Amino acid sequence: MIEFDIQEELKKLPKKPGVYIMHDKHDTIIYVGKAVNLFNRVRSYFRENIGRGPKIDKMVSLIVRFEYIVTDSELEALVLENNLIKEHRPKYNTMLMDDKTYPYIKVTMGERYPRLLMVRQMKKDKSRYFGPYTSGQAVRDVIELINKVCLLRTCNKALEEVSPENPKDRYCLNYHIGQCCGPCQGKVSAEEYTERVSKALDFLNGNFGEIIRDLKSKMSELSDALEFEEAAKYRDLLKSVQAIAEKQKIEDASLDDKDIIGIAEDESDTVVQVFFVRAGRMVGREHFHMSEGEAGSGEEGNHTISEFIKQFYSGTPWIPHEIMVPQEPEDREIIEQWLTDKKGSRVYIRTPKIGQKEKLVELASKNARILLDQDKEKIKREELRTIGAVKEIEEWLGLVGIRRMEAFDISNTSGFENVASMVVFEDGKPRKSDYRKFKIKSVTGPDDYACMKEALTRRFTHGLEEMKDNSAKKSSFVKFPDLLLMDGGRGQVNIALEVLSELGIDLPVAGMVKDDNHRTRGVYYNNIEIPVDTHSEGFKLVTRVQDEAHRFAIEYHRSLRTKDQVHSVLDDIPGVGPSRRRALMKAFTSIEEIREAGVEELMDKAALPSNAAQAIYDFFHSS
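Above: the chain's sequence. Below: its structure in token form.
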């Protein structure tokens, strides 16, 4: 992560409305807030002695970086703040944390006689869900209206086999007052009840025509029969349905899934900002920096958008129903067809010119412009802490061309369950896909040097074997490092040099020398301890590599302990179960003795079949 200078970043805050997001040292979002003026609001957190209270003081002490999203108004900031709080649930937020903000209507299609319920979460079941809605009261009003119109049940009784001859229970109050069709008494068949549910689903899907026609017909019939009181009830229901229908038209437009794309370009760089809107609310955002090779310096914006859409949506598993862009991309119709085929349903790429949608695209572009202005400085800082740090290390060691660095660490508990980690950094950044774990097979007891020797031997032997085997699929082991970093001084370095010498490999090895407090104070290379500036970017990079190797080893060791606190290395041998493990431990005094035994000795002492004895021998003697 790029080092974040809070005081410098405070100076760059825009004097515009928006939402700010506070992160702690683990990059966890701990607070989301809104502001009429981001510049004034965010800066206020970092002033001293202004009586904010202990809770805010505690929160501020944990902030290591912040980010923000500019909006067109305070109202937009409030809505966005609410969505982000719901999405991330920050520890220090007290506003708008209630899930009731976005309730759903659930139709229990898995039941023989389905019901309409208000729920707070969608689950993977047989039910149908509608929403989210903007308020709980709106959901209650809709459910009440549908139940009145369709006479659906509201009880939670298990109604499987009911009939007039075999009623489930006595009549409920809703049936007596004419707000339930009485499925518990067998007053309505399952087929007829299904038709009522179908009308309810049509209503929730926005198809109000049939219900409105039915209500008008019943109102007219009752009015013609001079039953004006009953006719008035249907009139009121009709007005309620028509009001919901008009409101639903507005809300449906915002309940679509869509991606809103904004773009900002200058002479040499391009930033694309994407707002992700799901079910009518913004659930996230992401920005992408497009280099000259991707966007092309001086290219038209529609070309850049076209390239971005093709590259981005070829790798994402989710494609929205609608993609809104500031300019129509090249080959729009072809790209739309490609996206439609990929999604399995119609996808539209639209360029809004007026109204709310146009404002949303403009808002995304504004945020892209802010990010573009900051990108150049961020890229410089990133290069300083990565490639620049590698250059410093090269100067210390008198080397050139360092690109890939590997580091190893050992973890165990009093010598039990020895494991090793291998981490890889390329151009000063972690390359996690090349990380590897080793469960040490040949060492018992706390012998870090022996463990390190096994791990290094296995790592480089594997690489050499893959290089020789032209038919085998190559792994990252075939890439040898430009520099091997050892988590220790002379002793660790000599172990690594010994292994490399035995395998005929020539590559530089440096160690991290620690002081009495176990803090790195310098680098050991070519039998010389090189003092380094502990405030330099090179030193910080070496420390990050060291910490990452240590973390990865401990994490692996902890996962093994979690699986089984008394786990034996024998558990990992194919064909050795609990009974054979007991026989081995009874016949031999230690894992080391088992490792040194031959196939025949294993068969004789532990009474094992030849295939099991061979598997055990191969396990301990394979590279």
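Residues 395 and 406 are 18 Å apart (CA to CA).
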